[in-house]
Design brief:
Blueprint (H helix, E strand, L loop, with lengths): L9 H9 L7 H11 L4 E4 L6 H13 L11 E4 L3 H14 L7 E4 L5 H10 L3 E4 L1 H9 L10 E4 L2 H6 L3 H10 L5 E6 L4 H10 L4 E4 L10 E7 L4 H14 L6 E5 L2 H13 L4 E4 L5 H13 L4 E5 H4 L9 E4 L6 H8 L9 E7 L4 H11 L10 H4 L11 H8 L17 H13 L45 H4 L7
Parallel strand pairs: 1-6, 1-7, 2-4, 2-5, 3-4, 5-6, 8-13, 9-11, 9-12, 10-11, 12-13
Helix pairs in contact: 2-3, 3-4, 11-18, 14-15
The structure holds adenosine monophosphate (AMP).
Length: 483
């Protein structure tokens, strides 16, 4: 099928040709005519399928009729992260060239004042992260009663980040008669429920998942003790010993670890930048631009910050942490080995990772070989342990506590290195020190009492319930009951 058969306007077709696209992708072929018919669409598709153009191209065509009124945006696109929001804005610039579209981006880390001015002028397309949108709404600067099209993108990521209550609120604030375009890579029950509540007779478009893991990617597991300093040492050794490294992304499960690993690698002389949800927008842009341009060789990133980003092919992926969600593994390693090129993905596995590893191997339907001794062969003693204060750790053992045995191929560690690494941890800013995360607003009246306040842009993944994966030793001890 050709783009000209989809019903797009001549101006939009010109922009498509200028972008160098010759054929619509399957999701574009299926979604564009439905969007133009003003139907609701439920797209089950990942990034990389061309889904952004699947909604931006018909939206631009529809927006050619009519004009925006002050404070009343005509369309609203919700994105889970600032980077994705910025990428969608770029799409409007690219495909809307030659059109007089007013596009505004409402994301955290940017001043309210400039965003207010844009809204006041009248906006055709408002692209926002849910938290910032609600902040503007609560300040009374924004009316959502003129929304004709609502796009909810990366819905399953929104779920991971705790944004679903915000999404439900926003869906109730926009007119019932609006058109809704909803995209999610997966359909967990919570997302299914939202689609049933807020979509009207949607056209369901499902794009087959990409081949789980490309044949061009060499995947290897590396055993390491649970202890953080030794894990970082294992990472450095891997990075130094890997061959043909052009560039690489190091994935951590937590933002706090992104910060620590980044600082540590920088101290050890690597060319490295960090990308996580607590960094201000400028720092994130600088980090990404440097990595894209090749001036920075490595990027330490969290899943959410890296998700969906148009980052060029990388030669190596290092999973500092085994991801909690097996899908994230496929997504992470898919950053390498693209377009027939060769790539390598290492995953560090500690004694605490057995469940994560089983889920990953279950998902890709193969077992991943070990580089060096397997976890069972290495016989590390340490599993997840209670977090103790640094002072306490030093008091007990005169150094880092309860070290496990090293893998046979681990490099001997100089004591100075350990000291500098621990000092690195101490330099990572605390939550309170990070201005982007300070929340000075009064609590929202309509937030249910049982629902904990969460931080916007939080990409540490779901909040653990109770003790999370960690079981303190005292709970494992058997006790005698009296009587
Ligand atoms: P997305 O899934 O929206 O993140 O798109 C992934 C990439 O595919 C982006 O870099 C787009 O520029 C590109 N792309 C989108 N549509 C097409 C198309 N029809 N032909 C070629 N590339 C495309």
């Amino acid at each position: 099928m050709n783009f000209s058969e989809l019903g797009l306007s001549p101006k939009v077709l010109e922009a498509v040709t200028a972008s160098g696209y010759t054929q619509p992708t399957p999701i574009q072929e299926m979604a564009i005519p439905r969007v133009l018919e003003r139907k609701d669409v439920l797209g089950i598709a990942q990034t990389g399928t061309g889904k952004t153009a699947a909604f931006t191209l018909p939206m631009i065509t529809l927006l050619e009729q009519g004009r925006a009124r002050a404070r009343m945006p005509r369309t609203l696109i919700l994105e889970p992260t600032r980077e994705l929001a910025a990428q969608v804005e770029e799409s409007f610039t690219k495909y809307g060239s030659g059109q007089k579209l007013n596009v505004a981006l409402l994301i955290g880390g940017v001043s309210f004042g400039d965003q207010d001015i844009k809204i006041a002028r009248g906006v055709d397309v408002l692209i926002a992260t849910p938290g910032r949108l609600l902040d503007h709404f609560e300040r009374g600067k924004l009316l959502l009663t003129g929304i004709e099209i609502l796009v909810i993108d990366e819905a399953d990521r929104m779920l991971d980040m705790g944004f679903i209550p915000d999404i439900e609120r926003i869906c109730k604030m926009v007119p019932f008669t609006r058109q809704t375009l909803f995209f999610s890579a997966t359909m967990p029950p919570e997302i299914q429920r939202i689609t049933e509540a807020f979509l009207h007779n949607p056209e369901r478009i499902e794009i087959a998942r990409q081949a789980t893991t490309a044949e061009t990617i060499t995947q290897l597991l590396v055993a390491a003790p649970h202890h953080a300093a030794e894990k970082r040492e294992t990472l450095r050794r891997l990075m130094r010993e890997a061959t043909d490294v052009k560039n690489g992304i190091i994935f951590c499960n937590r933002k706090s670890d992104v910060q620590i690993v980044w600082k540590s690698l920088e101290k050890h002389g690597f060319s490295v930048a960090a990308l996580h949800g607590d960094m201000d927008q400028r720092a994130r842009t600088v980090a990404l631009d440097g990595f894209r341009a090749g001036t920075t060789q490595y990027l330490v990133a969290s899943d959410v910050a890296a998700r969906g980003l148009d980052i060029p092919d990388v030669s190596h992926v290092f999973n500092y942490d085994a991801p909690h969600h097996a899908e994230d593994y496929v997504h992470r390693i898919g950053r390498t080995g693209r377009a027939g090129r060769l790539g390598t993905a290492y995953t560090i596995i500690t004694p605490a990772d057995d469940k994560n590893l089983a889920a990953i191997e279950g998902m890709i339907k193969r077992s991943i070989p070990w580089l060096g001794p397997s976890l069972a062969e290495a016989k590390f003693e340490d599993g997840p342990r209670p977090e103790r204060g640094r002072g306490e750790r030093d008091k007990r053992s005169g150094g880092p506590a309860r070290r496990g045995a090293k893998p046979a191929n681990a490099a001997p560690k100089a004591s100075a290195e350990t000291t500098s690494d621990v000092a690195t941890e101490a330099t990572a800013p605390s939550r309170e020190q990070r201005p982007a995360q300070r929340d000075t607003r009064p609590p929202r009246q309509d937030r249910p009492a049982h629902q904990p306040r969460r931080h916007h842009h939080d990409d540490d993944g779901p909040t653990p319930k109770g003790l999370g994966d960690h079981m303190p030793g005292f709970l494992m001890r058997s006790t005698k009951l009296k009587g």
